[in-house]
Amino acid sequence: MSRNEYIPFLSRIQKVIRHTKIEYTFRMTYKGEVKPGQFFEVSIPKYGEAPISVSGIGEDYVDLTIRKVGVVTNEIFENQEGQSLYMRGPYGNGFDPADYRGKELIVVAGGTGVSPVKGIIDYFGNHPEEVKALHVIAGFKSPKDILFREDIARWENQMELIVTVDASDEPGYRTGLVTKYIPDLQVSDIKSAAGIVVGPPVMMKFAAAELLKKGMSEEQIWISQERKMCCGLGKCGHCRMGSTYICLDGPVFNYTAGKALID
Amino acid sequence: MDINTKKAKKNAFRISKERGITASRVRVPGGKCTADVLEQVAAIAKKYGNGSVHLTTRQGFEIEGISLDNMAEVNQMLQPIIEELGINQAEKGTGYASSGTRNVSACIGNRVCPFGNYNTAAFAKRIEEAIFPNDLHFKIALTGCANDCIKARMHDFGIIGMTVPQYDPNRCVSCGACVKGCDQLSVNALRKENFKIVRNEEKCVGCGVCVTKCPTRAWTRSEKKYYRLTIMGRTGKKNPRLGEDFLIWTDEDTIIKVILNTYRFVEKYIDPTAPGGKEHIGYIIDRVGFQEYKKWALDGVELLPETIVKDNIYWSGIHYR
Amino acid sequence: MGRLLNEKAADALMERLQEQYDVFAPRLFPGTGCYSDTDVVRYGQISSLSEIVWDKKSEYSFKETLLPISDTVFYFTEDEVKVPDAPRKRRLIFLRSCELCALKRLDGIYLKNGFADSYYERIREQADFVWMCCEESFASCFCASMGTNRPEQYEAFARFTDGKLYLEAEKGLLKELLEECGQDGFGEEASLNAVYPEENQEKIEIPESLPEDMASHELWKEYAGRCIGCGRCNFVCPTCTCFTMQDIFYKDNPKAGERRRVWASCQVDGYSDIAGGISFRKNQGERMRFKVLHKISDFKKRFGYTMCVGCGRCEDVCPEYISYLACIRKVNQAAKEARTNEQK
Fold first, then answer.
1. Do residue B199 and residue B248 come from a single domain?
2. C-beta atoms of A69 and C276 within 8 A
3. pLDDT band at A5 (very low <50, low <70, confident <90, very high)
4. Co-location of A119 and A207 in the same domain
5. Same domain, yes or no, for B206 and B138?
6. Domain that holds residue C50
């Protein structure tokens, strides 16, 4: 008899990091193999499950950055340090650092799209010797929507970092879409570089187009897709695009495959 | 020309505005007839009429332009129609007995219409058999669902088909089609709770839209067919008005008993001095009072436990006198 | 060799069957149709073999005997979750060839696409199947075109001819019980062939390959105005397997509740909605394309065989008279045109 994959385990909340009013990172106790970009189904019985991507990985924890936008996530936000949430996973393929090792890496991320790549930014930020250079462009709607401020402060010293907001009333912020900053990136050899683009569907399309314009080929670009998932196990069908199941085959795709996916 | 007009009228012939010319009135219970009946009506119209046939509002044919001299021949030709439609008749070959009680009309019902909750023509036929022929002025109409396409509420008795929606939560996929359907097409009596559907039983009019919309057979119709009986709607000069609910969630047997009881009530209370001996039931009830009528109407009637009986009824409408 | 059973013999067999099995078959559910005074033939537990409906195709497929429409994944209280017990008895399921072929598709998703699904698996392992031979094809069937008019494999088959039930089993419990019936003098020994329709009135050609721009083809647009998104086509389909998770709590004890999975339809609003108000395929034309291309192409790319088994149930059930067959014919035409243009 196969293991019942639907049964969640309880995981203690080690820490809650509040980024914005509606975006918190929950540091969840978890010991086991996990990759950045993979996801867990986080649940509160009575309210339901939500797929949440891993935004950080530690010895005995995973960070799950959650946006409060629905019934389940509203309820998750009611929980404090020391309390527990149900989880199952990790699911999906995630980002494999091996794909980017030894290369110049450009990461372009927008909004909550920063979460799935944060692990990979952290990894190469902490292991700068493993990449030739690391360029990160992170875009948010407005200053109050900026996530991971503590991490961003650290990243400033670890990589070439551009944080931009679509528009700002406050001074001191770069403004404009992430795509605006791609052409000016100083990349030593675009042909051997690698790109990761994660964000809303339209943003990914235009950011990838900018990278291609810069001379990258499709094989050099990775994206991560977000779709409705009820199981994370290739059963419920909601995340299917053509013959691809985002939960099993993704959510991370090389752009050659990812661009061909049709909703 | 010597014609007993009263007799002619009783025999379903009209005294028309043109001297010597009548029209034969062929009533079709429940509005359901075969194409054969149509052909026979056509044959009469061609042979004795002027080729023209009027479709009456009460679902009959009025074969126009017949000479009063030909009533007997027309009655002969009507015989197969009468037999095919199963009309009550005292003597064969004598044509229709017209009556104060009008043709029991019906919408097409569940023979064809997806919304129909019962076979309207079959029930109309049952009522016809119970009450015809009768001189008292009764109008009865049956409609398949709460849409009331036949305008049953403009009748002395309006019979509106209902079903008690049966819900099997195990077959429900929470698609929301019933909730949307009930909101858009009916009375918004459904809501989702805990991913399943809750029906507001007081609000529900039993139209069955939820059942027709359900893609998984979570909603089905009750085995028993139910009816809403509305009473004393009318048109006319003095006080046209819509019928009001009398019994809700009632059954066929009860309706027939109530109608028969109403005949007895009218026989008792009709104004003997009324012109032509005709007084409409609605006006009698207005005169005698609803409580007295109700006593008569429900006499010996065993209501279903689920039937709602209105304590009192207040009709509105327009008062011209 | 099998046994030919009259009603009495069939009852004797059923008595034995019911000691071992819950028996499921297409049967009549009187008065439960969408419309007043209409019946539905669908799968349900039977208590007599004479309840099996042979002369009509069931409106809903057999899949609900393995995948309940609404299935409890676990019950929860404040601090624990409990998986409901598996059905106690084995299941014997009478089904048509198209459905036996659909079983392979269900297995594909539930046992092979990633982890094996333990809920499906535990019922599946407890199920035996009897192929109900179609003496004749029904109106909308196109199993012969799909190669599903006869099952790839079967352990037992049944025929209904001249008012008698013929049953033959290669092995297993049913074979034993049939032999027992023989020893006890019920029914007659006989040897009938398994039959299947060699061809159907409806014939269809599934394109080998589709043009790259098939998804954006004009032909999908008409469905945007025609489809009402009710999902009936998915719910009756023996190969549609999607579900949605639901958490519910008990009104009388809000601390307890259950997590369920419930059939889902890619045609119904909400199927692709994700948090934050984003939804994909808002238009019914796109949803039709998503479904049809899965049935005839996308599934095959993943599993190596076509998903659709040609049962025609979606064709029969659509309240808007959207013909899946007509759609495939249009797709096929588009594929042909694309190939011709390529050659030019």
1. no
2. yes
3. very high
4. yes
5. no
6. 2-70+86-190
Residue A12's pLDDT is 94
The pTM for the full model equals 0.93
Cα A30 to its chain centre, rounded Å, is 18
Q: Is the dihedral of CA A147, A150, A152, A153 positive or negative?
A: positive
Q: Is residue A233 part of a domain?
A: no
Query: Could you tell me if B229 and B213 lie in one domain?
Result: no
Nearest residue of chain C to residue A200 (CA atoms): C278
- Asked whether C267 and B213 are in contact (CB, 8 A), the reply is no
Q: Are residues B172 and B208 in the same domain?
A: yes
The reply to whether A9 touches chain C by the CB within 8 Å rule is: no
Which stretches within C191-231 are classed as H helix? 221-226
pLDDT for position C182: 87
Cβ contact C123:C87 at 8 Å? yes
The amino acid that residue C128 corresponds to is: D
Contacts of B144 in chain C (CB under 8 A): 36
Within this chain, do residues A66 and A101 fall inside the same structural domain, yes or no? no
User: Which of A69-78, B75-84, B238-247, C23-32 is least confident?
Assistant: A69-78
Q: In this structure, is residue B320 part of a structural domain? A: no
Same domain, B142 and B290: yes
**Residue B129 corresponds to which amino acid?**
E
Helix/strand/coil percentages in chain C, nearest 5: 35, 20, 45
Contact C272 A231 (CB under 8 A): no
**Which candidate, B141, B139, B133, B149, places its Cα nearest to that of B282?**
B139
Q: What is the pLDDT of residue A174?
A: 87
Residue B242 in any domain: the answer is: yes
User: Given CB atoms, is B157 within the 8 Å cutoff of chain C?
Assistant: no
CB < 8 Å to A2, chain C: 115-118, 121
Range of the domain at A140: 97-224
Q: Return the higher-pLDDT residue of B202 and B1.
A: B202
Q: Is the separation of the CB atoms in B140 and B126 below 8 Å?
A: no
In a domain, C340, yes or no: no
Contact residues, chain C, for B223 at CB < 8 Å: 31
Helix (H, G, I), strand (E, B) or coil at B60: strand
- B114 and B260 in a single domain? The answer is yes
A15 and A37 together in one domain = yes
Q: Is B144 in the same domain as B212?
A: no
Residue A106 sits in a domain of what CATH number?
3.40.50.80
| Distance in angstroms (rounded) separating the CA atoms of residues B3 and B10 | 12
Asked, for residue A261, whether it belongs to a domain, the answer is no
- What does C6-56 look like in DSSP terms, one character per residue? -HHHHHHHHHHHHHHEEEEEEEEETT-SSSTT--EEEEEE-SSGGG---SS
The domain tally of chain C equals: 1
How do beta strands A104-110 and A133-140 pair? parallel
State which residues form the domain around B205.
166-220
Q: Is the peptide bond before A90 cis (omega within 30 degrees of 0)?
A: yes
Cβ distance of A45 and C73 shorter than 8 Å: no
Using a CB-CB cut-off of 8 Å, the residues of chain C touching A44 are 247
* Chains A, C: CB pairs < 8 Å: 124
Instruction: Please give the average per-residue pLDDT across B242-265, as a whole number.
Output: 97
Question: Interface pTM (ipTM) of the complex?
Answer: 0.94
CATH number at residue A55: 2.40.30.10
Structure tokens at A142: 């407005």
Residue A6 near residue C74 (C-beta atoms within 8 A)? yes
Size of interface B-C (CB pairs under 8 A): 84
Dihedral pair phi/psi, residue C278, rounded to 5°: -90, 135
> Which chain B residue lies closest to C247 (C-alpha atoms)?
B194
Residue range A192-202: average pLDDT?
92
Flag whether residue A8 sits within 8 Å of chain C, measured between CB atoms: yes
Token pair of A207 as six digits: 């950011």
User: Which pLDDT value is given to residue A90?
Assistant: 96
**Number of compact structural domains in chain B:** 3
Q: Among A25, A56, A91, which residue terminates a domain?
A: A91
> What is d(CA A13, CA A8) in angstroms, rounded to the nearest whole number?
15
Quick check: C69 and B196 CB within 8 A?
A: no
